[in-house]
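hey can u check if this looks right to u? its 302 residues, i copy pasted from the old doc so theres a chance i mangled smth
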Amino acid sequence: MISSLQEIQTLAESAGPVTTAIIAPEDHEFMLAIKDAGKRGFIEPVLIGCRAIIEKAAEKAAYDIDKNHIIEITDRQKIADTAMNMFSSGEVGMVSKGQISTSYVYRSIISKMKARREHTVISVQTFWDIRECDHLVLLTDTGTNISPGEKEKKAILDNALRVVKLLGCDYPEVLELVSDSAQLRDKRKHHPLDKTPVVKNSRGAFKPLKAQVLKKVLLGQHGEKSVNLNHLPHIILMPDLNTGNIIAKLDFFIQDIVRVSCSYTSMGPVLLPSRADVAEGIIREFIFGVALVGQHRRLKDA
């Protein structure tokens, strides 16, 4: 499996540029990211939203957008729908959220999934690049499912398996986190996801684990020996959204972790940077998305 974001960048450099629909790019930090990613040959942006606001943000970023394809729409849901229509039809290879509520994006994705007669469980995959670990670690779901049941977790895991396969891991190790001791006892007696071969095959190495234990280990609160940072699993499945959010953002407290996220769909990657993200983090997500698109194309053509 790909071991670092540096390797991801190398893949992206050979894959780009990818035509990318940008949903409501209305902030100068986002414009700085688009400007830099375009200059470096990673993306060819299609800017969708209110032209006056887009132009104001571009001016603040000293970014000349005269040569960019701009689609003027003011209705927030229609902005997201337009991007997803272009994505579904193949006009663009990737979509990124800008300064717009994620709910508009999720509604548009679900609408497309229903039209394609696919399962409608969206999940967010957060990847950690950890200095001590010899592979990227995927945490999921970190963005959409508040309290997933076993059916939803199976779909979340399926989404994760699709992504790690693109990164060169056909037989990932999976660790399922649980929220409390009672749930832990139940999982050890009866594990519904055991019917998923990849989970069944890795359960000997990674038994279900309380989320609080992993959190303590990652934060260096010693005394917990259940997790080896040098040998984390490829996929860590979260018990609920609150836990996923907390653990995924522990990189704020741990210097040796760099984070990127996306929601990988059957159409390809949808990037969901926070409206508070600075240009450096947004560029990192652009690069990650471009690498995934390149890997998908490579495997499809093989």
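The chain has two domains: 5-118+266-301, 125-260.
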